[in-house]
Amino acid sequence: MLTAPLRRRDFRLLWTGMGVSLLGDGVFIVAIAWQAYAIADRPSALAYVGLAVSLPQVAMLLVGGAVSDRVARRTVLMWADVARALAVAGLAALVAADVARLWELYVVGGIIGIATAFASPALDALVPQLVPEHELTQANAIEQFVRPAAIQLAGPALGGVAVAVLHPAGAFAFDAATFAFSAVCVRRMAPVAIPPGGGRSSLRHEVWEGLRYVRGHVWLWGTFLSATFTYLLFIGPTQVLLPYIVRNSLHEGASTYGAVLAAGGVGALIGAAATGRRGRPRRPMTFIYGWWTLATLAVAGYGLARSDWGLAAAAFVVNGAEAVGAVVWATVKQHRVANEMLGRVSSIDWCISTALLPLSYALTAPVANLLGARTTLVVAGTAGAAITLGFLFLPGMRSSAEPAQAPRVPAHRKTKPAKV
What we know:
Growth Hormone, Chain: A
């Protein structure tokens, strides 16, 4: 049953807070795009915001992963929420006073990036401590259901209205409040055990231990590298040029941009729900790569579309196919990797996968100036799809063999996990 993990109090608290926080993130995406373009109406304005978020995030991910295997993951998540709440609240005050400048957007973006570097691996590693192994697919499906429902569907739709009615300052204030709410929810969770061996060796040793583990498994390092080059090609162009096309080619407002993102959210909801019901496929890596190839190829649809409906259709396919692969990927990773190593493996996943995101944002503006915004998106989607599919054929990538498992939450436990 898809909703089975929600019967567990701590998992329910986690995703109540995360759902509200992600709703705020969806509002933030629209507000930051319109605020950046209000200050300077050129692609580089928003591209450098993306660069400011991604560069410190990539730089701190390995540290964040090691910390999440040494410190209570619940604590890491709570303080990351607090830091982001304060940063976005400060931005709301600057925008409300009409004194915000681009460099201040970059500083806030940097704080968000650092906090996310700690929160993302902690969240990935915490979920298997809250639900038994047989519910992991459903738990990951709920994540892939809640995340797009909030950050891509309801959030951007609300963001378009908030920017129009409350102006960006009000939208930023709302996002700050959602981070604070998430911190309160996480704080109310029962304490969860620090992973076995956490803190017994140096931080540097634990980072290298995680890197050695990843190097020994082609399904890990191959997938991480595949994402590195694919994200290089399409994340910057998608994040920067999609709102630029809505604003300057279609001559539409923030509400249209929010509606396009919302269509992607609908696709992700459908993909996540369907995958959660069917369970893990027999050949998970082939399944994952097939859907991710489709998702990347559909990015070209952004460049080919000539109407808001065309952009919405492309967003539906991109995000729906991405969600299908993401549910299975998260489950496979949690199933195959021992929990005491999972925080580091997740941080290495995030670190390698996003390593070239700063370059993606930095290159988007000059490439778009050279090729045009639409052609850039078409090239990004087609080249990214070819690279994604190519990595599936690395020797050993499609093997169905799975390593031995570390102990998980007992399968017979029907209520919340034991308090520690």
